[in-house]
Amino acid sequence: MWVDTHCHLDAAEFGGESLAIAGRAHQAGVERIVIPAVNAANFATVAALSRAAAGCRYALGIHPICVPAASQDDLDLLRSAVHAALADPLLVAIGEIGLDFFLPALLEPGMREKQEYFYSEQLKLAREVGLPVLLHVRRSQDIVLKYLRRIETPGGIAHAFNGSFQQAEAFLGCGMKLGFGGAMTFPRALQIRRLATQLPLSAIVLETDAPDISPAWLHPARNSPEQLPAIGALLAQLRGMDLADVALHTTANAHAVLDRLRLPLDQGG
Length: 269
Fold this sequence. Notes:
- By secondary structure, this protein is of the alpha/beta class.
- It has one domain (2-262): Metal-dependent hydrolases (TIM Barrel, Alpha-Beta Barrel), CATH 3.20.20.140.
- It has helices at 18-27, 43-52, 72-85, 111-129, 141-150, 165-173, 190-198, 228-239, 243-257; strands spanning 2-4, 30-36, 56-60, 91-98, 133-136, 156-159, 176-180, 204-206.
- The protein has an 8-stranded parallel beta sheet.
- Helix 2 (43-52) links the parallel strand 2 and strand 3 (56-60).
- Helix 3 runs parallel beside helix 4 and helix 8 packs across helix 9.
- The model has no long low-confidence stretch (mean pLDDT 96).
């Protein structure tokens, strides 16, 4: 069985197919799909989709790409939504949060500071309620780490990790796991493949980031959580391991860092 630790199943690119896609992924052996929110407008959407789709769970947070349009009111809405959902076993993390120092619009005057403010406030919320975090770390690993060291959270995942081995060790030292997905399937992604091959398997969780970051065999078509077993097979090939062992260990890693994934549900999903 597999866990997709990061999938935007509510994205518009899926149209009206989200439930059917989740069902096909479940039939393919993806026992859990974690759906992170990106802004206040989709807090209710990811929660409702998690209740409707087999094996789905959700996270609540404000994505750095959504920070330019966000206000303090959105942080207040997030705090209220998280506290209201704490008794919901489907809520597993605070996310997707973090920093993005790649997109030009996010580097305009004052925007970096606003990103860092939203990120630090969401880390404080995660610490307050005792939930792990799903981190966006594009071109920002060192600053993300700086805040993690200041504001300790109950672990989490550095999503779509593409840093150095030194940065990887620093994230692991902060109680994080590292997310690997479709980017790892491209032969030219040499650093990502080195990380995926040489890091301890205990450091790694799998993800699709669907509908984005399609694996090599799909690119540039829309990604899907159904692709996770094939991404896991590529990791097994890179590491020279048995596929069943990779599935077992990456699933255990996901359960360890997102411990609410293991909570029993009345509906059995």
